[in-house]
Design a protein that fits this description.
By secondary structure, this protein is of the alpha/beta class. It has one domain: Glucose Oxidase, domain 1, CATH 3.50.30.50. The chain has nine helices and twelve strands. Strands 4-10-9-7-5-11-12 form a seven-stranded mixed β-barrel. It has a two-stranded antiparallel sheet with strand order 2-3. β11 and β12 form a beta hairpin. The longest helix is centred in the C-terminal third of the chain and has 13 residues. The protein is globular and about 65 Å long. The mean pLDDT is 97.
Length: 261
């Protein structure tokens, strides 16, 4: 069996969610002084490759330690949409099903190619990675529920499109006004007359708000080998493994694909 790492590296240089605390790390013991190396970290949970549990948006939702292991490991697919995804691109459930069979209860990881723009990617560009990533059309929410999917993931900073996030609606308001640039680019891409249709107020953070109450949760910032040609658009064994964080609304995780020799 060959094991593929689908995770991004994590340290103080990794991109973090805007206005969340960044990752901090320091040594508090060094070999020459104490005979041992030991480090201390301070961070939010929403850094690098991480899993959002339902508790992230649902007051009484499941926490990381309450997610059954059966939901974190099993059959699934990596769908390759990278050839169609550009800045602020939209993808649909039809685009996924045109490329691969998705069965009920599968683990679904979506490869858009955007991980290459993260800090340690081959075309690193933090603003492009965070502000202008692709995302799903809001119809994907009903499709994921119909497919009875518990775990899905993306190689982007969020499972929602930037126009359904603070990024495209109010990020930097009163300051750098990042949202204005994103919104303007989206209007140029889709047409100003289409914005309310494609990104209605009801779709705001919908992959979080509408899915978590049904125990459909996700991994963000996938990367590593997710673009390996031999993994694309075929059935695989997939997994994402967070630490057993009691009460955790999210946690760093290691995402993995297993392929029989």
């Amino acid at each position: 069996m060959k094991i593929y790492d689908l995770s991004q590296p994590l340290n103080q240089d990794a991109p973090f969610w805007p206005f969340y605390p960044p990752f901090e790390v320091k040594y508090f013991k060094r070999k020459s002084e104490h005979g041992v190396n030991a480090q201390y970290i301070k961070t939010s949970n929403h850094m690098g490759t991480h899993m959002d549990a339902p508790r992230h948006f649902v007051t009484a939702g499941k926490t990381i330690d309450e997610l059954p292991l059966d939901w974190l490991y099993g059959e699934g697919v990596i769908v390759d949409l990278s050839d169609e995804m550009d800045e602020l691109g939209l993808f649909t459930s039809k685009m996924i099903e045109d490329r691969v069979e998705v069965r009920e209860g599968d683990i679904l990881f979506i490869h858009t190619g955007w991980y290459t723009h993260a800090q340690f990617g081959s075309e690193a560009d933090e603003e492009k990675y965070i502000h202008r990533h692709p995302g799903p059309h809001f119809e994907i929410v009903d499709w994921l529920l119909e497919k009875k999917i518990h775990l899905w993931g993306v190689d982007m900073v969020s499972t929602d499109h930037p126009m359904n996030l603070p990024i495209g609606r109010f990020l930097g308001k009163g300051g750098l006004e990042h949202w204005k640039k994103v919104s303007q680019q989206a209007e140029e891409k889709f047409g100003a007359d289409k914005m309310d249709e494609l990104f209605p107020d009801s779709a705001y953070q919908l992959t979080h708000n509408a899915l978590f109450p049904h125990d459909c949760f996700h991994v963000e910032n996938l990367g590593g080998d997710i673009g390996a040609p031999e993994l694309q658009n075929k059935r695989l064994t997939l997994g994402a493994f967070p630490w057993k964080f009691k009460g955790g609304e999210a946690a760093f995780c290691r995402a993995v694909a297993f392929v029989e020799d």
